[in-house]
């Protein structure tokens, strides 16, 4: 299972089918499953079997034990059942586990009451069920999760749950500010974001296929925001720019001067790498509004600063920084749960970009790929890049090729990241810098991608879009 596989809390009132659905999901996607009820300390069990309801203080050690089970599975993924009826219980779990997904199994009191009556092993007085419904605080837009109806046959509930776990989702980060996350953040599953005051909408990045871009547009509109009139591209890569054609020409496409040049020069870049993938109707739309160093845009009262960090992930990166909300969209200057990727940019430039990102003082970080996180991702990215630099220095001095070095490298903590095959192209860039070649100078794509495929067992990694 890939790193940063889903971590899911199956929540809902008693009788909603948390264990049944959780176990079925666990079987379908090969993730470990645990019963949240097994994590109660003995004192709680004593209380409950004596008929005394638990209070919030009793629940804290229980929630913390569940959180620590989940936190121990960030690499493998995992599913756990937990009623998590109240927002503050969910906040306690979500605060301890990055990217946690809440799957709320939802049904009317009548339906769930009926199902409980059918289950002879699980006696529950009607009043207790009513008290659960009274306590239930449904998921809100700023929580990461989905509400699934338990009506109909169980196979349908499981399928809908599975679709929800894998589906792209918006996450409200501040009033009018959303991230748009595409799990699990692997190849071509990039993040986007949108900022709106209800009159003007600015979109950050546009996904890799026409159908994903259309879904993104539907999500923006469903939030109540109007059609975007500004689209910012964080860089030229197709998974961030292919969907431009869904939003242009109604929207100005804004990017760094080099991003425009790279989009134009690289054309249908993803088609070359993944000729069999269905990208839909894509036309190449380079930014038609460019800037050099910084550019400030305004969405109502919200200031959106575009900052070019120099050559880093590519030659034309843009950091999208919202100083009032302390939210930053990094593009691929940072990956959350995935390996960084620098063959089209610079290793030293990427480290400098991380310093710049840290200096902003962001509270919330939307990386180019992976779930929404915090500035800790900058440190994780830096550790990986320094590891690449060290490997390159040794390998270069010893006269070994990047592929040889990549093949024998001990990945250590980085083995848990997605896309380990990126080590080969990253070493190519590090070698180029050791040879004194300028940042961002084009490397031979056949060699870079050829070595990556070699490291990946002789085939190109799969595009997941
Ligand atoms: Zn990229």
Give me a quick take on this structure.
The protein has 17 helices and 17 strands. By secondary structure, it is α/β, with parallel strands linked by helices.
How would you describe what is shown here?
The chain has 465 residues and is of the alpha/beta class. The chain has 3 domains: 7-166, Rossmann fold (3-Layer(aba) Sandwich), CATH 3.40.50.300; 169-386, Metallo-beta-lactamase, Chain A (4-Layer Sandwich); 392-455, no CATH class. It contains 17 helices and 17 strands. It has helices spanning 18-29, 42-49, 56-71, 87-96, 109-118, 126-135, 154-166, 210-222, 238-241, 244-247, 257-266, 269-273, 347-360, 376-397, 402-408, 423-434, 445-455; strands at 7-11, 33-35, 78-81, 101-106, 145-149, 169-174, 177-181, 192-196, 201-204, 230-232, 252-256, 289-291, 294-299, 302-307, 319-322, 327-335, 364-369. The strands form 3 sheets. The protein has a 7-stranded mixed sheet. Strands 2-3-1-4-5 form a 5-stranded parallel sheet, covered by helices on one side. Strands 13-14-15-16-17 form a 5-stranded mixed sheet, covered by helices on one side. Helix 13 (347-360) links the parallel strand 16 (327-335) and strand 17 (364-369). Helix 1 (18-29) crosses helix 7 and helix 14 crosses helix 16. It is globular, with a radius of gyration of 24 Å. The two termini are 18 Å apart. The mean pLDDT is 94. Bound molecules: zinc ion (ZN). GO terms for molecular function: ATP binding; gluconokinase activity; hydrolase activity. Keywords: ATP-binding, Gluconate utilization, Hydrolase, Kinase, Nucleotide-binding, Transferase.
């Amino acid at each position: 299972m890939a790193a940063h596989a889903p971590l899911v809390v199956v929540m809902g009132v008693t009788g909603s089918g948390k264990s049944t659905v959780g176990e079925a999901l666990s079987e379908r996607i090969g993730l470990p499953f645990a019963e949240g009820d097994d994590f109660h300390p003995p004192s709680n069990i004593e209380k409950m079997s004596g008929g005394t309801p638990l209070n919030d203080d009793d629940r804290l050690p229980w929630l913390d034990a569940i959180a620590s089970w989940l936190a121990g599975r960030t690499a493998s993924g995992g599913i756990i059942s937990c009623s998590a009826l109240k927002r503050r219980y969910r906040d306690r779990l979500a605060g301890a586990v990055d990217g946690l997904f809440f799957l709320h199994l939802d049904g009317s009191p009548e339906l769930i009451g009926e199902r409980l009556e059918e289950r002879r092993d699980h006696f529950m007085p009607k009043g207790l069920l009513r008290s659960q419904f009274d306590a239930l605080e449904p998921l809100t837009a700023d929580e990461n999760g989905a509400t699934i109806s338990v009506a109909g046959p169980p196979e349908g509930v499981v399928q809908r749950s599975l679709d929800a776990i894998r589906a792209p989702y918006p996450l409200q980060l501040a009033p009018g500010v959303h991230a748009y996350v595409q799990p699990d953040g692997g190849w071509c599953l990039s993040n986007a974001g949108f900022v709106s005051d209800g009159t003007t909408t600015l979109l950050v990045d546009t996904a890799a296929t026409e159908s994903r871009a259309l879904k993104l547009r539907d999500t923006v509109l469903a939030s109540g925001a109007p059609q975007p009139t500004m689209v910012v591209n964080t860089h030229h890569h197709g998974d961030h720019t292919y969907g431009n054609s869904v939003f242009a020409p109604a929207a100005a496409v804004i990017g760094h001067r080099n991003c425009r040049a790279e989009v134009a020069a690289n054309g249908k870049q993803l088609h070359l790498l993944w000729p069999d993938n269905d990208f839909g109707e894509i036309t190449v739309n380079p930014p038609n509004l460019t800037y050099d160093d910084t550019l400030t845009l305004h969405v109502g009262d919200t200031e959106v600063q575009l900052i070019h960090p120099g050559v880093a992930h590519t030659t034309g990166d843009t950091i999208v920084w919202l100083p009032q909300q302390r939210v930053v969209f990094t593009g691929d200057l940072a990956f959350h749960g995935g390996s960084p990727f620098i063959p089209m940019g610079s290793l030293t430039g990427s480290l400098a970009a991380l310093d710049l990102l840290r200096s902003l003082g962001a509270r919330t970080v939307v990386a180019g790929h992976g779930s929404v996180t915090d500035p800790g991702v900058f440190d994780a990215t830096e550790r990986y890049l320094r590891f690449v630099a060290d490997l390159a220095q040794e390998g270069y001095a010893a006269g070994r090729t990047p592929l040889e070095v990549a093949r024998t490298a001990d990945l250590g903590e980085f083995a848990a990241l997605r896309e380990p095959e990126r080590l080969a192209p990253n070493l190519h860039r590090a070698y180029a810098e050791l040879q004194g070649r300028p940042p961002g100078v084009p490397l031979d794509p056949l060699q870079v991608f050829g070595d990556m495929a070699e490291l990946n067992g002789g085939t190109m990694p799969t595009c997941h879009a």
